[in-house]
Amino acid sequence: MIYSAVSVIAELANDYITKRFGQSEEKVIVSNIVNPDGSMAVTEPDKIILSLVNLQQETVNQKNHSGNTYRPINMNLFLLFSASFNDGNYAEGLRYLSAVISFFQAHKVMNHRNTPELDNSVDKLTFEIVNQDLQNLSHLWGTIGGKYLPSILYKVRMVTFQEGVLTSNDVPFSGFGTNF
Questions:
Q1: Model pLDDT for residues 139-156, shown as the tens digit of each residue
Q2: Residue 13 belongs to a domain
Q3: For 140, phi and psi rounded to 5 degrees?
């Protein structure tokens, strides 16, 4: 479900950008920023890199569930959009990053009515900018292991993981009894 959500976001952002700038080349790619060996993961020039930088369980609005189903797990995705443009194209990278912001301003909510490409396993996605001070921004880029790139971080609510009905072999743990 994470993959399907991230890939449809990248696809729709690309569609928006190609129409806005009148070009056919995909600019938004899903990738790490840095490989485990420290080298840049994206070698193609002039791209907006979409990276999953964190997952967080959503604990607000936990619905009651019946005893015969697994409790759904609602996850928030933290997606970083980074402008990786060559030195001569730095200003162009800022234009594309601005287009990403405009895209999410126009598409704050994705559901099956306005986004038929959304996987059936995903009910709805909402987007919110995560404001970071310089210290947190520095920490994020230090954790990633890369040199700073102009970027924006979005919190995407919420991807729900829901498995089916409990079988008789999947009895929920109810604590230790007095008989060990």
A1: 999 999 989 999 999 999
A2: yes
A3: -60, -50
Tell me the sheet residues that pair with 28. Answer: 48
Q: Is residue 168 part of a domain?
A: no
- Inform me whether the pLDDT recorded for 158 exceeds 60: yes
* Helix pair angle (2-21, 90-106), 10° resolution: 110
Q: CA quadruple 36, 160, 125, 154: dihedral positive or negative?
A: negative
Tokens of 46: 């002039």
* 44 phi, psi to nearest 5 deg: -70, 135
Q: What is the pLDDT of residues 92-139, one digit of tens each?
A: 999 999 999 999 999 999 999 999 998 888 888 999 999 999 999 999
Does residue 143 fall inside a structural domain? yes
Q: Cβ neighbours of residue 85 under 8 Å, at least 6 residues apart?
A: 45, 46, 47, 92, 93, 96
* Sequence-separated (6 or more) residues with CB below 8 Å from residue 13: 28, 48, 50, 100, 103
- Residue type at 60 in one-letter notation: V
**CATH, residue 46:** 3.30.2000
From 146, 156, 131, select the one nearest 54 (Cα to Cα): 156
Expressed in angstroms, the distance from the first to the final Cα of the chain is 40
Given a cut of 80, whether residue 64 has pLDDT beyond it is no
Residue pair 116/122 in contact (Cβ under 8 Å)? The answer is no
